[in-house]
Design goal:
126 residues, alpha+beta, three-stranded antiparallel beta sheet, 3 strands, 33% helix, 14% strand, elongated
């Protein structure tokens, strides 16, 4: 594998030629009627640029691993979330029934709610 890397970098440094044709407002690799041939040279990165790119990719991968470890450590220290779920039907304890009389065991009358309007009642005009 280490022997193939210099060979690959050497081949990558050799510029390659491609033929492109301009056909009207578009470009094509196939010749067309009235098309103009445009010579395109693909510039490959130098050995130094390729080596620098590999070094940058390795350092980025190391930094990403360190960031992931830090994130996982921070998540492990975070307090657990409290999730409140609504009660399921039939899961709560039954409510004790009140006595049917108008008085409870202590002799107090049951309070009844009566709605009252805060505005005074208007008198009807005859």
């Amino acid at each position: 594998m280490r022997r193939l890397l210099p060979l690959a970098l050497l081949l990558a440094a050799v510029p390659t030629h491609a033929q492109v044709y301009r056909c009207g407002n578009g470009y094509s690799q196939q010749p067309c009627t009235g098309g103009v041939e445009i010579a395109v040279v693909k510039q490959q990165p130098s050995r130094e640029e390729a080596a620098r790119a590999v070094a940058v990719a390795k350092s980025d991968a190391q930094r990403a691993d360190a960031m992931e470890k830090a994130r996982l450590a921070q998540e492990a220290k975070a307090p657990k979330a409290i999730v409140l779920e609504p009660p399921r039907p039939g899961a709560s304890a039954p409510i004790a029934a009140k006595p049917k009389g108008k008085h409870d065991k202590k002799g107090h009358k049951d309070e009844q709610f009566t709605a009252v309007s805060p505005a005074p009642a208007k008198k009807a005009k005859n």
